[in-house]
Design a protein that fits this description.
Blueprint lengths: L1 E4 L5 H9 L3 E4 L4 E5 L2 H11 L4 H15 L3 E7 L2 E10 L15 E3 L4 E5 L2 H13 L3 E4 L8 E4 L2 E4 L1
Parallel strand pairs: 4-8
Antiparallel strand pairs: 1-3, 2-3, 4-5, 5-7, 6-7, 9-10
Length: about 160
């Protein structure tokens, strides 16, 4: 995903383009090529006003879906296998689903939710977030596997 920018040579504009992330001159295309990031899009829009608001927002949403996809990670806390961590992140992430869980708490320092270890609850969280469009990553230990702590690291047996 790149932006292709064609313009006359103006020193000030070239200097500006060089401030954008991963931007370079392509002699093959005879254009400037800039990585399509939300930050680059915003800077280009502020300077050149290429897009109307509707088109700008559509492009930004597409970029953010790639840069910051909506995902939910389920994993154990190293200190306790009795609780599950649920980390929700990305564009359009929805925290309202996890807020429907009783006995949940938020760990502000690690930006994750802590919920009781309960298979029905885990299945419900996975189903609800999948239906909401999130990529759900179940990093919980599967049946028949266990961990032991060795020098502050977890080793899969």
């Amino acid at each position: 995903m790149n932006f292709y920018i064609q313009m006359s040579y103006v020193k000030e504009e070239v200097r500006f383009l060089k401030t954008l992330q991963k931007t370079y001159w392509s002699s093959n295309h005879n254009k400037w090529i800039s990585k399509a990031t939300a930050d680059n899009l915003e800077k280009l829009q502020l300077r050149y006003h290429f897009f109307d608001d509707i088109r700008y927002n559509k492009i930004k949403n597409i970029i953010l879906q790639v840069e910051a996809p909506y995902k939910v990670n389920l994993y154990y806390m190293p200190q306790s296998m009795e609780e599950i961590c649920v980390k929700i992140e990305g564009q359009n992430s929805n925290h309202e689903i996890i807020k429907r869980v009783s006995n949940r708490r938020y760990d502000k320092s690690d930006k994750r939710w802590i919920v009781p270890k309960d298979q029905k609850l885990i299945d419900w969280i996975k189903t609800e977030y999948s239906a909401d469009g999130a990529m759900v990553y179940d990093k919980l230990v599967k049946k028949g596997k266990s961990y032991k702590k060795v020098k502050n690291h977890l080793i899969l047996l």
